[in-house]
Amino acid sequence: LKLNLRIHATGDIAVLYARLAGIYKSKGDFKNALNYDDIALEMSKTTGNKRLRAKTYIDYALINNSLGKYRESIDYAKKGIALADSIGLIDAQKEGYKSLVSSFELKNDLKQALAYQKKYSVLSDSISKASKLMTAKLIQNYHTLNAKINDIKQMEIGDRENKAKIKAQTNLILFLSVSVAILIALFFVTWYLYKQKKILSNKLEVQ
Fold it and tell me: How far from 9 is each of 5, 13, 51, 157, CA to CA, in Å?
């Protein structure tokens, strides 16, 4: 936090104040938790961080539940859920519904508690289904990628084999070419020696 304050990283500072609020909330120090949440909320407005603002409203709801201020908790939870829904922040919506269930249970309003419990369950199920679909998609993508990598490997192996064959054929052609050249040279030398020998024989006969 000190480092971010030094470099005036406003967006990060706001998030860090919210995290400090969470730490104090977990310790049961709700006074300091609310103070840091107040700072985080104001900074979320100046930085336009709706995600942080929605989560801070939910944090207010949870703290007020712990303080026995159920009416305030319900108002903050509804605010947080509405904002979270507008930006597609599902985890904050889920926490908001959970807070509402707790508030109405503590108020002994079981009808409302059950209604929000159903909404919480529906959202949890949708998250679970989305997570399963994403996992299945990731597995499918992994197998597709793995198959493509294997195809590339096979192509590389095939390419290496083709190169080896081409190299062997090139070496064979070179060897045959050299052999033919040597044979031609030997033939020429043999023919030349034979001709010279015949010329010499003719000279001897004339003498």
Answer: 6, 6, 17, 53
Closest CA to 74 of 42, 32, 102: 102
Closest to 80 in 3D by CA, of 99, 64, 67, 108: 99
- d(Cα 73, Cα 116) in Å, to the nearest integer? 14
Which residue type does 151 have? D
E strands within 18-129? Answer: none
Interatomic CA distance for residues 30 and 32, integer angstroms: 6
Q: What sign for the dihedral angle of Cα 15, 18, 24, 27?
A: negative
Kindly report the pTM of this predicted structure.
0.61
Using CB atoms within 10 Å of the CB of residue 161, give its burial: 0 to 12 exposed, 13 to 18 middle, 19+ buried: exposed
Residues of the chain with pLDDT under 70: 2, 5, 128-143, 146-147, 194, 197-207
Identity of the amino acid at 203: K
Q: How far apart are CA 10 and CA 7, in angstroms?
A: 9
Integer-rounded Cα Rg, in Å, for the chain is 43
Question: How do residues 144-183 score in pLDDT, each as one tens digit?
Answer: 776 677 777 777 777 777 788 888 888 888 888 888 888 8
- Which 3 state secondary structure label does DSSP give 46? helix
If residue 181 lies in a helix (H) or strand (E), which one and from where to where?
A: helix 110-206
